[in-house]
Amino acid sequence: MPSIIKKFEECRDMIEKGWILAYPTETTYGLGVNPFNQEAVSFLNTVKKRSMGKPYLMLVKDINMLEHYAELDKHVLGLMETLWPGPVSVVLKAKNKLPEWMADKHGHACFRVSSSKFASKLFEYIDRPIVSTSANPETFPIAKTMEEVIAYFQSQERMAVMPDLFEDAKGSLPSTIIDLTKQPPKILRKGAFNIVF
After folding, report:
1. How far is it, in rounded angstroms, from Cα 155 to Cα 128?
2. Residue 35 confidence (pLDDT) above 90
3. Per-residue pLDDT reduced to its tens digit, 120-132
């Protein structure tokens, strides 16, 4: 049974020791781990029954944090300043500081600055990206509440669940994903944010 926690220090500690953290985003509930811990990422794959070779997107605190892990140009920066924070994830060329298992075969990785109050608060305690993936086994509907998360993953002991203290999770759609390594940019997944290029 997942543990229910209510302190951000506990969120940080769970992620540091390789547990999965279930947390509210501005769309639905997400699952997160430390992207620099390969065993934790592999464990998340197992729990979600996720296909191998599909890198996870990551939440970053802001563009300053993103610059450490992805290649940015003026066009990308301008777009990010317009779209973020919010339910838009972007694919960018990863820098070497990012572990190879967090990038695809082309060296690209996916990032987002969330507009949720939870994420903003969490980054007061964590100074690096965290994995953000939908809280559901692959092919199942995405969990939108803490109760749905627990129902899906009730047999998991290395998982902690944070209640939606700020009532962030209001949507039913995941984030929109845009590939900014393409010109023009390519929408890879339509989601909670509508955009046309």
Report:
1. 29
2. yes
3. 999 999 999 999 9
Return d(Cα 178, Cα 172) in angstroms, integer: 19
Phi, psi of 25 (to 5 degrees): -115, -175
Q: Give the CATH number of domain 3-189.
A: 3.90.870.10
In a 3-state reduction of DSSP, which class is residue 171?
coil
Supply 58's token pair: 């990551």
Q: For residue 186, which amino acid is it?
A: K
Nearest by Cα to 116 from 159, 76, 175, 65: 175
DSSP lists the bridge partners of residue 176 as 88
Contacts 24+ apart (CB under 8 A), 135-141: 135/22, 135/28, 135/29, 135/30, 135/31, 136/48, 137/47, 137/48, 137/49, 138/48, 138/49, 138/50, 138/51
Give me the residue label for tokens 């990038």.
103
